[in-house]
Amino acid sequence: MLQERIEHACSVTGRDPGTVTLIAATKSVPPESIIEAAELGIKHFGENYLQEAVRKRPFCPAAATWHFIGRIQGNKARRIGEDFGWVHTVDSVDKAVKVGVGASKSGRSAEVLIEVNIAREPQKAGVLPEEVANLAELVYHLPGVRLRGLMTMGPANRNAEEVRPYFQAMRRLLEGLSIEGANCLSMGMSHDFDVAIQEGATHVRIGTALFGHREN
Fold it and tell me: Is the C-alpha dihedral spanning 123, 126, 128, 131 positive or negative?
């Protein structure tokens, strides 16, 4: 069902469904459910909390690709860089530096995205749109990280069509960067990923539509 929705959303704009990565958002999801998702062909999994990931991952498929999709606490940024191949929520040079140090310790670079507070919501993390270009330029030159693009969460409690203008704005921000290798847009969740894909999302973060409602 989810794959059919992804394929339909891609067909609206003539995109290849293979350009969209489905990330299973596994906050509060037990390892058994993650294993079941992997058996269905899902390869990418996203965690919001470092402690939860550390506790669960020894029981999860070894071949999975792990994405950190929660807010980065400065004192945990290095460990996040060590443990996650992708980090979607970089919002400062300091955190990017620490993620890079952690990734380098593991003998690789971390694939990172800059989180953008596209709707300027005071309760959310992320840099403001006018700050993106400067931060991207700084992150691009850091060791241990590879800038891959931008990430956002659409405004809460909006229907998908009301969020579309924010996704469009994210696409324009990415196009304006012109940084080699920064071509990813992580946006869209269970309630609005169809529209996000139509507006250029390359990574969608799906939790409820896969695993049902979970307690926070």
Answer: positive
Residues 169 and 118: beta-carbon distance below 8 Å = yes
Enumerate residues 6+ apart whose C-beta is below 8 A from 175. none
Instruction: With 0.85 as the threshold, say if the pTM is over it.
Output: yes
Q: Give the closest residue to 173 by CA, choosing from 199, 146, 144, 205.
A: 199
- Residue 85 DSSP symbol: S
- Domain parsing of the chain, residue ranges: 2-211
User: Which tens digit of pLDDT belongs to each residue from 110-121?
Assistant: 999 999 999 999
Q: What are phi and psi of 151, to 5 degrees?
A: -135, 150
Rg from Cα positions in the chain: 16
CATH superfamily of 2-211: Alanine racemase (3.20.20.10)
